[in-house]
Specification:
The complex is a heterodimer of chains A (720) and B (157). Chain A is of the alpha+beta class. Chain A contains 18 helices and 27 strands. The chains are: A alpha+beta (720), B alpha+beta (157).
Chain lengths: 720, 157
């Protein structure tokens, strides 16, 4: 049983039936563009035998929605999807039983068409809405309930248009940024130049002039914000205040080369076994075994990446008496409530947090911090709704990034080309800084604004995450059958930038390293890289996606100048399987032109095929952007990539054809797929780049400068 | 503050505003047209695109006073008789949005592109959309929607 069901074991916690012919489904997972509400609605409609249009997905809010933690880790289908399936199946059985009683017929004679229960024997009928409308079920979910057989599905697995698409295309959908309330003020925060700067002096005369112009200035220690009726006036006021504020700059940010720091700084090192870190000494790197014919070593690196949400984080808040209401695009309203209540010394029951749509976040971005900003300003201006937006600069410079990482790999091959020894050490900062308040006091540290208020919290000191495949050690453990792999997680201290969860956590970097290194090993062994992978994979589903992607990729001849690459992973060795093939070309100006991608994915039973395909396409495009373009830059005075010019991302103009092959597994459990493609996508690009140019680039991003530098340093005979 | 009359989606609106205010804020906060989004405020991301006399324009920086004689059209003004325009319908049919924050800008840019070019080639399409960022990776769906619109060959006002 999933933790979602353990916490919320009753049918009424997940759905209700109205007298109006509608079904409300309550999931604790939020839709942030990943189409999860469409998939949930399909599951509910299928198990209940009602039309999809009858399903309303409830807004997620504290006190009402199921507490399903955070919408993260590709867990939504496996946890919430399964819970909704069991809850709706239990509800259906209950309503069949009640109908049999009401109609005085055997339950086995009943069939359901769009919520109408009819007896085959008697022609009598009763609807869900008559039977159950606006009444509680008062029954527990039966975790052993028989669910529908996949061959009887009429809705799950069908092509549908995602919920909300019409509103998005016609400008009628409402993001939290678009909300308005009577008397509402717009607000902006005035951030310090960098994390460690503290307010030294503020021009009081300017503050008075702003107040005279109906701009409210909120100051609490080094925390500064402005609010007012007119949004543009508020923006100008924030700019004036920022220009007039004086800051103690302290020592600034550490400026040592980040890739040196990753392996030279103090760190916590833990061996990893079967995906789980062990509180044991790290074994030394052993000598190559007796049967080793050759031993290879390589180091791979990735820079800091940002989530880069297209909409800067925002939240609406109003404080009424001791109660604070917050509308936020947070991925976890309950964990945010816990952390913020802890941070502000509030009773959790006085904090009401409601999810409202935001821009795609892809992990822990500025959403939670913006919610706290809004609440702080709202508390300073009681009974006044406050719509707080981060600026683009706030978002780029203050969101918690995905850490830079280094991966050091060593492997030995025997004379038959089998991997006989494998070592992989991953180095990076934490990915695990989502809001929580355990231990007590941690909440304030993890919510950025609370570090700047008077007597604010210290910076958090991350502890190594010890669960299966999280943080730096996500997908560190290869799925390949290497004997006794030596795997080490290194949580590095003293790194310069604030970090937390970005799509795949360490998985992107670890899979990049593993798959590129496998390509190097296959080359050293004189083997075809696809055959080499299959030779080291025991899992049939893994082999099936690798073969499917290879077949599609190689279905036609390689055009001149095109390099092909293929890579694979199973996300967290327990979620969706994905293999990605890429065709690319390096142009005369050393830019990479992406021509084609093929994706083979096995996510178990497919519910929303178009949504799954979309997640795969989007995962590829985003990972391609990370790989080709992205790196957060900084110096002593702070982050320097503060807009889209200084942090470029992939654009129209370099979008390849993408063919996605869904390997449906009817009747099998759902396997989370939102992050499955990213790792193999980055690796496949690196491998294709090698095929196109002969150059092995081991540090992202693969910019023209990086490609030219690699060509200059390449041994003679390698073209560029 | 001063009064200015704007023609938006075919209707005249008199608004009282600081004339230096970027058009986007007037559309969103005074006229309630929140389809165009504030993504950067730097003319770098395309989320705030609208049509000015049929041409796509970014609205997050340029002052409202520049637009007093113009025909301003937002994503909300593309639908006809409450039905999505052909471009909007193609976006819907192809699922050309994930989070949808960039969608209004892309719909507007596509509308302008197909008004100017009946059969644009890929490089023309890319050039028309290159200033529009999408972080979810819905680009391919947008391109497919445009392919469909081109092959239908209909008028896409």
């Amino acid at each position: 049983m999933t933790s979602s069901l353990e916490k919320q074991p009753n049918v009424d916690q997940w759905l209700s039936v109205g007298t109006d012919g509608r079904v409300t489904v309550r999931s604790g997972k939020v839709d942030i563009g990943q189409r999860i509400s469409t998939a949930m609605a399909l599951i509910a409609a299928e198990e209940l035998d009602v039309a999809l249009e009858r399903i309303d997905m409830a807004q997620v809010e504290t006190g009402i929605s199921p507490d399903e933690g955070v919408t993260s880790g590709s867990n939504s289908m496996q946890d919430s999807g399964q819970a909704v399936r069991l809850a709706t199946a239990t509800a259906r059985r209950h309503m069949i039983a009640r109908a049999a009683e009401a109609l005085e017929v055997e339950p086995s004679t009943l069939e359901i068409t769009d919520g109408l229960i009819r007896s085959r024997d008697s022609n009598l009928s009763v609807s869900y809405w008559e039977l159950q409308g606006d009444q509680p079920f008062d029954i527990p979910i039966d975790p052993e309930i028989e669910i529908k057989a996949p061959e009887t599905y009429t809705q799950v697995g069908e092509q549908v248009i995602a919920r909300g698409m019409t509103e998005l295309a016609t400008g009628q959908s409402h993001f939290v940024h678009d909300m308005t309330m009577p008397g509402m003020l717009h607000a902006r925060v005035v951030r310090p130049p960098h994390y460690h700067a503290r307010l030294k002096n503020l021009d009081e005369a300017l503050c008075r002039r702003l107040e005279d112009a109906a701009i409210r200035v909120v100051r609490d220690g080094s925390y500064l914000a402005v609010a007012g009726e007119d949004e543009y006036a508020v923006i100008k006021a924030a700019e004036r205040l920022a220009a007039a504020a004086e800051w103690n700059m302290g020592n600034g940010l550490p400026t040592r080369d980040i890739y040196e720091s990753l392996t030279a700084n103090e760190r916590v090192s833990l061996p990893v076994s079967n995906g789980v870190p062990q509180r044991e000494p790290v074994p030394d790197l052993p000598e190559p075994p007796a049967g080793a014919a050759q031993t290879l070593r390589a180091r791979y690196e990735k820079p800091y990446h940002m989530h880069g949400s297209l909409g800067p984080s925002a939240a609406l808040s109003v404080a009424e008496g001791k109660e604070v209401h917050i509308w936020t695009h947070s991925q976890g309203v309950y964990v945010l409530r816990e952390a913020l209540a802890g941070g502000l010394g509030m009773d959790e029951d006085d904090l009401h947090i409601i999810h409202a749509p935001g821009a795609g976040c892809y992990g822990h971005n500025g959403a939670d911090d913006a919610a706290v900003d809004a609440a702080l300003i709202a508390r300073a201006l009681p009974s006044t709704p406050v719509l707080l937006k981060w600026t683009r600069e706030d978002e780029h410079a203050w969101e918690p990034y995905s850490t830079a990482m280094a991966m050091e790999l060593q492997a030995s091959l025997d004379s038959d080309g089998n991997v006989v020894a494998w070592s992989h050490e991953a180095y990076g900062d934490t990915f695990m800084m989502r809001p929580r308040n355990a231990p007590p006091g941690e909440g304030a540290k993890r919510l950025l604004p609370l570090r700047y208020v008077a007597n604010g919290a210290d910076d958090p000191v991350p502890q190594p995450a010890m669960r299966y495949h999280v943080g730096v050690h996500r997908n560190l453990d290869p799925l390949y059958n290497f004997p006794n792999p030596r795997l080490v997680k290194n949580l590095v201290r003293g790194l310069p930038l604030r970090t937390s969860a970005l799509r795949t956590l360490g998985g992107f970097a670890n899979v990049f390293a593993i798959e590129c290194f496998l390509d190097e090993l296959a080359e050293a062994a004189g083997k075809d890289p696809v055959e080499f992978r299959l030779q080291h994979l025991d899992d049939e589903r893994a082999c099936a996606v690798v073969k499917a992607a290879a077949d599609r990729l190689n279905a036609n001849d390689t055009p001149a100048n095109i390099g092909r690459g293929i890579a694979f992973s199973q996300y967290t060795n327990s979620k969706a399987y994905a293999a990605v093939g890429v065709e690319l070309e390096v142009l005369d100006d050393a830019t990479i032109k992406l021509h084609r991608a093929v994706i083979a994915v096995d996510a178990g039973q497919v519910v929303d095929p178009d949504g799954l395909t979309m997640q795969c396409e989007g995962g590829f495009i985003q990972a391609a952007s990370w790989t080709l373009h992205e790196a957060v830059t900084f110096d002593r005075d702070g982050v320097t990539s503060r807009d889209w010019d200084s942090y470029p991302i992939l654009r129209f103009g370099n979008i390849p054809e993408i063919e996605t092959v869904l390997m449906d597994r009817p009747g099998d459990p759902f396997l989370g797929a939102g992050e499955a493609v990213s790792g193999p996508a980055g690796a496949a690009i690196a491998i294709a780049l090698k095929e196109a140019t002969g150059l092995r680039l081991r540090r992202m991003p693969f910019t023209p400068d990086a490609i030219r530098a690699a060509a200059l340093n390449a041994p003679a005979g390698i073209s560029s | 503050m001063a009064k200015i009359t704007l023609t938006v989606n075919g209707e005249a609106h008199e608004v009282d505003t600081d004339l230096a205010t970027p058009l986007l804020f007037v559309l969103r906060n005074q006229l309630g047209l929140t389809g165009a989004k504030l993504g950067c405020g730097l003319e770098q991301c395309g989320a705030c695109a609208i049509l000015i006399n049929g041409e796509p324009v970014l609205s997050c920086v340029r002052a409202v006073s520049e637009f007093k004689d113009d025909d301003i059209r937002t994503v909300e003004g593309l639908a006809k008789n409450n039905a999505p325009s052909a471009v909007q319908q193609a976006f819907i049919d192809h699922g050309a949005a994930q989070c949808g924050y960039c969608t209004a800008g892309l719909v507007v840019a596509t509308t302008a592109l197909l008004k100017r070019h009946k059969n644009p080639d890929r490089s023309t399409i890319d050039a028309a959309l290159t200033d529009h960022l999408c972080r979810c990776g819905s680009h391919l769906r947008v391109l497919k929607a445009i392919d469909t619109l081109i092959s239908e060959g209909a008028s896409h006002d």
